[in-house]
Specification:
The protein is an alpha/beta fold. It is 37% helix and 15% strand. Helix 3 links the parallel strand 6 and strand 7.
């Protein structure tokens, strides 16, 4: 039986249940002054609202240095019974203070591994942020450290793709470093709804992450179900969906759709228009596999590209 690593420790992956595959309970960034997610009471209220809508697990993508508040995550998980997964990793350079010196590859890798192997408040995934249609030196170092940490821990590598771009560039880096596609989650793909681009990424065997409804994604929210329907015929077993609540105003307790809308709005539309089987895959079956810990040589899907090969879009 595979396991996932929650903030409270390891769980059998099939106990995750209905899962929000990409969200933020706590988050702060140099790019978003005044929109920090810092309040523990509001975070817990959002978790309880998601739970009331039928949710059982939340995967938090906030990486190190951006206000993960791991002790608060653990306390909220204990009080609510909702499973919470916390990320290590590193976002794009612009999200951090320019006064903060960058870490070496070795130091960054060690930090990721230590977070995942921590006896208390462990991380269960490695989140990396990359740029719009390019990778800079900072981001390539992050990806190299993520690949090395994955090899040492089996933790999945999840990627913030700026406006949904750079997926092929990321895969070139990670596959060449030996990371299996089944351990890679590409996020924000709905922000770049190019069907040919999405099909190419899907054929690699990676997990395909979408978000909605979300204030950050509102420009392409209306295309979400059509994209999912188009991919589902061949790639339903690779689809993931999250809420991506990154600002205070996006929470349901304020003026936004928040985490509950993932199930009450988008989830119900998927169930009604695309069927129960696809709903079950996106919200239950796929997250249980996507966020499992795996060895670097783990068996992968039949359409996966073996580690060490380049990803070449058609």
């Amino acid at each position: 039986m595979s396991i996932v690593r929650s903030i409270l420790g390891d769980l059998k992956s099939d106990t995750l249940g209905v899962t929000n595959s990409h969200d933020h309970l706590f988050f702060r960034s140099e790019k978003l002054p005044g929109q920090e997610l810092l309040d523990s009471q509001l975070a817990e209220a959002e978790v309880r609202a998601f739970q009331a809508a039928g949710g059982q697990s939340i995967v938090q993508w906030t990486p190190a240095g951006l206000g993960r508040h791991r002790a608060e995550l653990a306390a909220i998980s204990r009080r609510t019974g909702v499973h919470l997964l916390s990320a290590t990793g590193r976002h794009r350079r612009e999200h951090y203070s320019i006064a903060e010196p960058p870490l070496s590859l070795e130091a960054l890798t060690r930090r990721f591994i230590d977070d995942i192997h921590a006896e208390e408040l462990p991380s269960g995934l490695i989140k990396i942020g990359v740029g719009f249609h390019h990778l800079d030196t900072f981001e390539r170092t992050s990806l190299a450290a993520a690949a090395a940490a994955h090899a040492a821990t089996g933790a999945p590598v999840v990627i913030h793709l700026e406006l949904g771009s750079s997926g092929a560039l990321v895969l070139d880096e990670l596959l060449a470093a030996g990371v299996s596609p089944i351990s890679i989650v590409l996020g924000h793909l709905g922000r770049n709804p190019d069907p040919y681009y999405l099909q190419d990424l899907a054929r690699s065997g990676v997990w395909l992450g979408f978000e909605g409804p979300s204030r950050a994604n509102h420009a392409t929210d209306w295309r979400l179900l059509a994209i999912i329907e188009a991919l589902a015929a061949e790639h339903h077993s690779q689809l993931l969906l999250g809420g991506d609540t990154t600002t205070a105003e996006a929470r349901s307790v304020n003026s936004g759709p928040g985490m509950p809308a993932l199930l009450t709005t988008t989830g119900q539309r998927i169930r009604r228009l695309l069927g129960e089987t696809l709903w079950q895959a996106i919200f239950v079956d796929n997250p249980a596999r996507a966020f499992s810990l795996r060895g670097p040589s783990a068996d992968s899907k039949s359409n996966s590209t073996p580690g060490g090969r380049q990803f070449r879009p058609r």
